[in-house]
Amino acid sequence: MDGCLLLFDIDGTLIDAGGAGVGAIRLAARDLYGDQIAVPELDVRGTTDAALARKLLPAMGAEVTPDSIAQLYEAYLVRLREKFQEESSEAIILPGVLELLDILRKEGVTMGLLTGNIEAGAWIKLESFGLDQYFSFGAFGDEHPERDKLGPEALAAAERVHQRRFSPVASVVIGDTPRDISCGRVIGASTLAVATGAYSIEELSAHDPTLAVRSLEELEAVLDLVAGCSRANAPDSGPGDSSA
Length: 244
Fold this sequence. Notes:
The chain is α/β, with parallel strands linked by helices and 244 residues long. The chain folds into two domains: 5-16 and 93-232, 3-Layer(aba) Sandwich (Rossmann fold), CATH 3.40.50; 20-85. The chain is 43% helix and 11% strand. The protein is globular and about 55 Å long. The two termini are 18 Å apart.
């Protein structure tokens, strides 16, 4: 399985943040723009933090500029750390995650992140559960409002970190929303949809992922998919080889 590249979403796939992310965003908005501000409802399913910032700032009466986005991210990260440090936090690792990650690491599978979280926020969430040890690179939602643009960045990050080119047909994008499926399809990767987030397995299956499972506890099916991708096409020998 060492020829396969797996790209994981975080929220709803690896962890359930227990509302910490949305709560942190709402508190950050009020920290910046006052307690009386009406924070709009936010649909965070499969979106990127860059898209959320561009929706939230105008609702606060603020212009969307690099400075205003940076200020919002900074305030959000402060509140996110607080949320994950609270004794009352309801955040959990989702079923099957640890067992799967341990097996994949032992098998030499390359694992990265493909997430709508800004990079610093992603690491805060993963470090809270010790999951950061499994990942050394990723594509993050700092800049791109459109999640579909993150796939090529993830492939480039994998090549940069591991000094080898990974073929999309030997890659799997793993997530809990239709946007994760679309993101994988754009780069020609296999897609694994996991129904541990806001969408049911029936809703996810309607978007034609390569495989849909109720949770990552369905290890046999997941590992079969990974093994198949590994056999489909081994990674190229190096970053200078553009034959893939």
